[in-house]
Amino acid sequence: MEPVDKAAVRIKHWMEHNGSHIEEYDAFAKHLEDSGIGASAKHIREMIELTRKAGDCLRKALLALDNERP
Fold this sequence. Notes:
The chain contains 2 helices and no strands. With 70 residues, the chain is mainly α.
């Protein structure tokens, strides 16, 4: 397998992994909010946005691979 193909597999895996974390973080933030722990939930929600930004970077990296194929 070519290095670019290996990189694509790895990046796709990370994208899926990040997506599952976002779902878990969101459920946890809801749990905290329902329990009256709003300040902590606010930080978890901030982490969700940062994780989404990381996902955007991974998507851009995956798109950039197309330009780097030999």
